[in-house]
Amino acid sequence: MRIDPEIPLETLTVKAESREQYTQSSLIDRFNRRIDYLRISVTDRCDLRCVYCMSEAMQFVPRSQLLTLEELYRVGKSFVDMGVGKIRITGGEPLTRRGVMQLFESLGGLDGLRELTLTTNGTLLARHAQALKAAGVSRINISLDTLRADRFRAITRTGDIRRTLAGIDAALEAGFQRVKINAVILKNRNHDEIPQLVAFAESRGMDISFIEEMPLGVIGDHDRAEVFYSSHQVLHDLQRHYALLPTTETTGGPARYYRINDSDTRVGFISPHSHNFCEHCNRVRLTAEGRLLLCLGQEHAKDLRRVVRANPLDDEPLRQAILQAMQIKPKGHAFDITAQPVLFRHMNVTGG
Ligand code: SAM
Ligand code: SF4
Fold first, then answer.
1. Higher pLDDT residue, 236 or 341?
2. H-helix or E-strand containing 347?
3. Cβ–Cβ < 8 Å for 347, 53
4. Are 197 and 147 in contact (CB under 8 A)?
5. Is pLDDT at 300 greater than 50 in this prediction?
6. With bands split at pLDDT 50, 70 and 90, how would you rate the model's confidence at 183?
7. β 137-143/301-303 pair status
């Protein structure tokens, strides 16, 4: 079905009466974890080629195989019907997907969705920040691994840091509830900038999270074990400059947070290697081609595109398929930074 940009997506989805049969706790897996968070990758394409995320010559999914915006909305809405309160839009670079603002607007209007958030590289934010805020996006994560233009270009292979910095300014001006910087730290590439990145975030009232590199896909740039820089090392480096106080605050994700004295800024650590967070996993991921991935670090998945397309006028089979998928959510990831990648899927497929 082609989408007429004039028709709100809500009106295209029919027959959702039976959602009442689901309760807030419909989505529980075999390990008694409640799933209340969906991440949607709206495209695997991107205007950058970060060295830890992609190889230089990537093959992307043909556009004809992607879920349409209407189908993405149907899946998002079905999850919300079943108790999911938080949706994060990610990618690839989500803002490169044509018409994506329409999806933000439709999801943003869903009763029952508490939080609509976005992860972006920021290059197109200057253009879209105001409209994202108006659509109901409350928090934005922006990826920035360095403050140096030459390093930014080297890490992203193609990028111009000025565009991401302009995107950060636009996000701050638009007045989102929180803006957070995401930084992947690689030894001898950007590890010496850790305190400067925190100072940058603090000076603008933003949070910042440091992410350990995960071994997803063949990237052809570096040996992941060689550049590994653990969250412990990041914390250790920072403690020479800042008094960091551990907090029990959470934003519903795997990050562990610290507060800086006398500041609003939270410093987070996403540490799949040094601190396994699977026990409390509350999320699943939808790829742009409609595969529901039950774990970032495993291949357990359910093909929702087939279900959506076989039932264009009825969302009930989709909800049933989602319910069944909870039974194959694995206990945890199996990342091993020292091994050859066992997962050939790159990070841009799932959006982290
Ligand atoms: N393009 C957007 C961006 O860069 O923010 C959204 C998608 S990107 C895949 C989401 C997050 O995953 C970014 O913060 C990025 O730094 C992180 N990331 C990408 N590849 C990674 C990897 N192999 N290990 C850890 N984090 C990774
Ligand atoms: Fe693109 Fe984000 Fe991957 Fe960088 S991390 S290549 S910006 S999808």
1. 236
2. helix 347-350
3. yes
4. yes
5. yes
6. very high
7. unpaired
Write the secondary structure of 126-177 as one string of H (helix), E (strand) and C (coil): HHHHHHHHHHCEEEEEEECCCCCHHHHHHHHCCCCHHHHHHHHHHHHHHCCC
Question: Would you list the domain boundaries of the chain?
Answer: 17-350
Query: Does residue 41's CB lie within 6 angstroms of at least one atom of ligand 1?
Result: no
User: For the whole model, what pTM was predicted?
Assistant: 0.90
| Number of H-type helices and E-type strands within the chain | 11, 12
**Number of Cβ within a 10 Å radius of residue 220:** 10
Protein residue with its CA nearest to atom 13 in ligand 1: 143
Given the candidates 3.20.20.70, 3.40.50.720, 3.30.365.10, 3.40.980.10, the CATH classification of the domain at 17-350 is 3.20.20.70
Amino acid at 26: S
Point out the ligand nearest to the CA of residue 41: 1
Distance 116 CA to ligand 1 centre (A): 18
